[in-house]
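Supplementary material to the annual report.
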Amino acid sequence: DPEPWIENEHLRVLFDPVTGHLREIQNLAKGFSLPVFQSFYWYNASAGDGQSPQASGAYIFRPNGSVPIPVAKRAATRLLKTPLVQELHQNFSAWCSQVLRLRPGQPYLELEWTVGPIPVSDGLGKEIISRFETPLRTAGRFYTDSNGRQVLERRRDYRPTWNLSQSEPVAGNYYPVNTRIFIKDQKVQLTVLTDRSQGGSSILDGSLELMVHRRLLNDDNRGLGEPLDEPGDDGRGLVVRGRHLVLLDTAVAAADLHRPRAQEMVTPPYVVLAPGPGPHLRQGSPG
Amino acid sequence: PGDSSVLREAVAVAQHHDAVAGTERQHVANDYARQLAKGWDSCQVLVANALSLLGDTKGPFEFCNALNISVCPLSETTPHFTVILYNPLARGVAWPVRLPVRGSSYAVTDPQGQPVVPVSCVTQRLRGGAGGAPGELLFQAWAPPLGFSTFEVKQLSPAAPGDPPRWPSG
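Predicted assembly:
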């Protein structure tokens, strides 16, 4: 497809026809768009170096460089459009894929990512991130929640309560994300909701990233005595699947959108099945 | 008898900083998961009992815990089943339901007995899911605040020819 896209009544999402990456999100209701690139990268987990013997491990996130490596430069893609869902399937590698979905009536883009088993036969521990890049002028600022409630402003290489001399340009800027992370300028806000707690940051202006999976080969010398190397049932390493909801709105209206969505993310409706006509429970009503 | 104290106990144990942060040894992490899974199972019996009371029925209920990888034995093998959507939020929600199925077309009726349209059947080949079914049934459901909705699903035609059954891998 020369110009792959998916849309619903709220959003139109464009993809790069060559690399298959997310390229732009258009907010149809409010008539504005934002170029948004998203892909998966991995930080090479430190095993200790000349500066410090500290390795990345269960307690410690310490990449051995500030520039993460792309999982792949492009993705093989498939497009699926039905009346109830439009989705683009991206296959970055045997251990990294994603489905980007729009459904009628949903004012957000759903990214269902599947990562693992993380290959470590090269002897390198890996910390996998999903990174979003935009032209937003964020001046080093980004926002993360605390336990799903108060959102705090974060500022790169800075702490509000003491003079920080930054020794870890990446790890020193990672914060806990329990439900949401966002970046914004005066007009536009890009919010990403998570379906579980993850590490998050904004290492470059206009970008935000979330750590979705890790597989490490060294103990971090905090008393555990084993690396964070979850073999999973088949011993090949855990496969993890999760969801990120991407919301693009004006900065003033963004909270109206992400607050109810985050509630649904944390306490979604629950499906139970029964054979045949099943029970006649207290009936629901549309809407 | 269903019992929510098993899960309450498991969640209480998992308040330990190791469980919260993932800094425990592997065998301890496995044990936290085991306790939580046992608690989950015991709560599902409790929910099934509640549904039986609410519906004056003894019908068996099935909780498909692996819908995220398109595995649900009941919807994959039964041509006639009911989907019960429980909404824990204090406001009504519309919710997309997506179930692995073997048939190629289905009729869905809502709590008022009206047909739900549209209903989509998509091939699962795109998803490469772990499930055994060749396709997925999609429809838009909804549920009232803190309440249930039941949607009846009937298969209209068998699997599309040439769709070999794919057994769950692994």
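The helical segments of chain B are 5-13, 17-21, 26-55, 73-77.
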